[in-house]
Specification:
The chain has 673 residues and is α+β, with helices and mostly antiparallel strands. The chain has 24 helices and 6 strands.
Length: 673
């Protein structure tokens, strides 16, 4: 496979062989000595107990795994020596801050992950602005992932399969957190959308599985409604989840081709729930635009990733509409040869697609060496993936076929027991990866929303093969470990009473409210920082203790690029001279002078503020109201500050160290007098 020049990234985070062995042993011992005891066997609360135990185990395991310096959470840096979000993570957090300020998702600026912004806003409303507190509550929610995999596995095969899935998922995420210093990664301790999307897609898979399995006799409308609603929620976190839908519907058609009316009706219900959940946000017309966000997003993807020879990560918003209308102009006289030549530009799609599939399978161990995580990550498909052409370490000739055998047995067992329903997670995988491939993404964090599928079928394969080996050896380690792969006469199909129509309607109303909360939250949350007259801010400045002559202030405000504003001050950082963050086009790049930086979330938009100063202050409050006096830099996108006032009790004043006069414009960027 020829490596693509853009967004061609490394394999999924690995599971270590010793971790897999420990998880298998723990599953067998728990089943033998705990879950099969006469005191617990048959108890209705046993599944709830296992669910809660897996959730608590995952939370504690991730909590005690320390967060290290990351591109998306650089630090800790002075003056507070804490982590703060950066790049995409900062973008999502700023969108959440605007919700709390009563100005809607990202102050009306188009963004495609609004539900995650709402989730972060809820966390901040509960625990405040502290990054550590925010992350702890986030992992408490995301620790549901292993528990939900337990529910999925126990319904697909049996209880041991579910327990093993949950344990593997817990250790896999622990490895992701621990791998932060060594590879690019997205995990539950970063403010990123990939792992929340994975959790929502697992829940979707659970209800889609129940919906398809019950379709043989009586369709459970509540499952169809729940499946569609959770897929809609996943799309509001990462829109790529949309491509999962046609593949699952195709599977449903294959399972019900002899009952086409039943398939059509239940599929319409599922699709309707997806639309009902996402449409309120997608039809909102952002500030400064004359068409809904859905069209803006489609045009942005086409221009930035698909119909271009130079893909980019971000398209300036003003260009998204300027380029509208030239993508699909019909040309009836275009020769067939030209059309085929045009298709060559899409050769990147199968390359990225198979790269996604290969990089996902590589999370399974493929060597005899019992390396720790750091040494495991030295393999070329993590460290030099662009140059890697398929070479594998010693022992992979055994381990790769062995891993594929476990996966194949897992798929076969899921099919044998559940029919088409057992293939729901498997069919989701190519759908999501096709969406990634169309957008020229493969590897890295783009695998996270779906790499759990490998864990599902690997765990099933291990359980099935282990049971066969134990039976062949005549060993009954698990006492009541049942492994009946015949298709069950499911209680969902025969013994459940007729469903009331009111339950699906009530569930649909809840999803509609969830979708409506995104465009309407600014209606119910009071605006915290409305625009103020400069004279009002001048009075607040003088009252805070920064005495400025009124004529000097008037002359400053008459300068063409003067800046005076107030808002929420976030992410305080101090950088010595010639230090900064990666990506030279961003305001926090390395500069030849020392400076303090914050982000100010103001009524109009957000700004990065640079305050040149020799030494950092002892502490700077994060998440407090600040007033910034300075100039909009004419060369770069930041505010060159003269002073920052923290409107606490008592107020605190921080001036630039290099000059004391309130003048504007300042010297050109990088030339502080």
């Amino acid at each position: 496979i020829i490596a693509e020049p853009y967004f061609w990234d490394e394999a999924s985070v690995p599971l270590l062989a010793v971790q897999i062995v420990l998880c298998v042993l723990a599953t067998v011992l728990l089943e033998r000595w705990v879950f099969s005891s006469r005191k617990l066997e048959g108890r209705p609360y046993l599944s709830i107990l296992i669910f809660l135990s897996l959730w608590l185990f995952a939370f504690l395991l991730w909590y005690v795994t320390p967060l290290k310096h990351s591109y998306f959470a650089p630090g800790p840096r002075p003056p507070n020596y804490l982590f703060y979000p950066y790049s995409d993570a900062e973008f999502y957090d700023l969108a959440a801050q605007y919700i709390l300020l009563g100005q809607g998702v990202f102050n009306g600026i188009p963004m495609d992950k609004p539900l995650y912004a709402m989730f972060l806003a809820f966390i901040h409303a509960v625990v405040g602005q502290g990054y550590e507190e925010t992350i702890n509550l986030q992992i408490a929610v995301l620790a549901l992932m292993p528990a939900m995999l337990f529910l999925l596995g126990s319904q697909m095969i049996n209880r041991p399969a579910g327990v093993l899935m949950g344990l593997l998922a817990a250790f896999h995420q622990r490895n992701a957190i621990a791998a932060t210093p060594y590879i690019k990664i997205s995990h539950s301790k970063l403010l990123l959308t990939e792992y929340p999307t994975a959790l929502l897609l697992v829940i979707f898979a659970l209800f889609a599985f129940r919906w398809l399995r019950s379709g043989q006799q009586r369709t459970r409308w509540a499952d169809a409604v729940l499946a569609g609603g959770f897929l809609g929620l996943a799309m509001l976190v990462r829109p790529n989840a949309l491509m999962v839908l046609p593949f699952v519907l195709l599977l449903a058609w294959a399972a019900n081709f002899q009952r086409i009316k039943k398939w059509l009706l239940s599929s319409v219900v599922l699709i309707f729930m997806v639309i009902l959940t996402v449409l309120p946000f997608m039809l909102e017309i952002p500030r400064g635009y004359d068409e809904p966000y859905l069209m803006i997003k489609i045009r942005a993807i086409l221009e930035s990733r698909i119909l271009t020879d130079e893909p980019r990560g971000i398209i300036p918003l003003e260009r998204q509409l300027a380029a509208a209308g030239h993508f699909f102009q019909p040309n009836a006289t275009q020769p067939l040869s030209n059309i085929l030549d045009g298709l060559e530009r899409f050769a990147y799609v199968p390359r990225h697609f198979f790269h996604n599939m290969i990089m996902t399978v590589m999370l399974l161990p493929n060597t005899f060496a019992l390396h720790d995580l750091r040494h495991t990550l030295e393999a070329p498909y993590w460290q030099d993936v662009r140059q890697w052409t398929g070479e594998l370490p010693a022992g992979a000739a055994i381990f790769l076929p062995l891993n594929l055998m476990f996966l194949a047995v897992g798929v076969g067992a899921a099919w044998q027991r559940n029919g088409a329903a057992g293939l729901v997670p498997l069919m989701m995988l190519p759908g999501y990866f096709l969406a990634n491939s169309l957008a020229r993404n493969s590897g890295w964090r783009y695998l996270v929303p779906m790499d759990w599928v490998i864990l599902v079928y690997f765990a099933i394969g291990v359980v099935v093969l282990l049971r066969w080996v134990l039976d062949w050896l005549g060993i009954d380690l698990s006492r009541k470990w049942q492994l009946d792969l015949s298709r069950p006469a499911d209680s969902l199909q025969h013994s459940s009473p007729p469903q009331k129509v009111g339950i699906p309607i009530m569930l649909g109303a809840l999803y509609l409210l969830a979708g409506l909360s995104l465009p309407l939250n600014k209606t119910f949350i009071p605006e915290r920082y409305p625009p103020l007259n400069p004279l009002t801010l001048y009075e607040k400045i003088n009252a805070a203790g920064l005495r400025i002559d009124k004529d000097t202030f008037r002359g400053f405000m008459n300068s063409p690029n003067a800046y005076l504003n107030y808002g929420l001050g976030l992410y305080p950082r101090f950088y010595p001279a010639n230090n900064g963050e990666p990506q030279p086009n961003l305001p926090l790049k390395a500069r030849p002078y020392p400076r303090f930086t914050i982000s100010i979330v103001a009524w109009d938009t957000f700004y990065t503020v640079l305050l040149p100063m020799e030494e950092p202050m002892a502490y700077f409050p994060h998440g407090e109201e600040v007033i910034v006096i300075g100039c909009k830099d004419t060369h770069e996108p930041f505010i060159d500050a003269y002073a920052i006032l923290v409107m606490s009790d008592p107020p605190q004043i921080y001036r630039r160290s290099f000059e004391s006069e309130l003048v504007c414009p300042f010297a050109p960027a990088g030339e502080i007098p």
